[in-house]
């Protein structure tokens, strides 16, 4: 008889879970939808659990409940236009249509490396791709292929090099260099 009681209990349990449980699915859906509405406030609870009080939140660099009009925004980075490079007599910085300068934040889109420049140097004629690939941007390693020339500025990335004496726009040169923002 003890075995019969256990089976009856199991059958009641199955009936409760699978047969009668289907009628309560609508109630469960209503509870789930109300939970979704309160999820916005759950993030505050989670942050409180992680960092503790608001002093800890400031230490964690977490800002909560900041209105969109008060959010901190960084100034937009600006690029040179027109993009120019030139000799050592030309000032470095952001180039504008009024104040043309030699860009000092150049980046190569071909090799994805920063373009470096060296004042009062020019490249030897036998400087090649493999030399630049192995040695750029280290000046001490590049120096054997550089020779001194007043007023010149030599530029290189890991795939190409240029020596400039006067102001020239990048679009006139066979390089894939862009301004990396100022």
What is the structure about, briefly put?
With 182 residues, the protein is of the alpha+beta class. Helices cover 34% and strands 18% of the residues.
List the helices and strands and how they pair.
Elements: H1 2-19, H2 25-51, H3 54-59, E1 84-85, E2 106-108, E3 116-123, H4 129-135, H5 139-142, E4 146-156, E5 161-164, E6 168-169, E7 177-179
Antiparallel strand pairs: 1-6, 2-7, 3-4, 4-5
The fraction of residues assigned to DSSP E strands is 15-25%
Rg on CA atoms, Å: 34 Å
Helix content: 25-40%
Number of DSSP helices? 5
Oligomer: single chain
The SSE string, one letter per element, is HHHEEEHHEEEE
What does the main sheet amount to?
3 strands, antiparallel
Structural class: alpha+beta
Give the rounded overall mean pLDDT: 81
Number of strands: 7
End-to-end distance, in Å? 87 Å
How are the strands of the largest sheet arranged? 3-4-5
Apparent shape? elongated
Note poorly predicted spans.
Answer: none
Main traits of this protein?
alpha+beta, 182 residues, 5 helices, three-stranded antiparallel β-sheet, two-stranded antiparallel ribbon, elongated, 34% helix
Could you walk me through the main structural features you see in this protein, from its secondary elements to its overall organization?
- The chain has a three-stranded antiparallel sheet with strand order 3-4-5, with no helix packed on it. A two-stranded antiparallel ribbon has the order 1-6. It has a two-stranded antiparallel sheet with strand order 2-7.
- The protein has five helices and seven strands; from the N terminus they run αααβββααββββ.
- Helix content is 34%, strand content 18%.
- With 182 residues, it is α+β, with helices and mostly antiparallel strands.
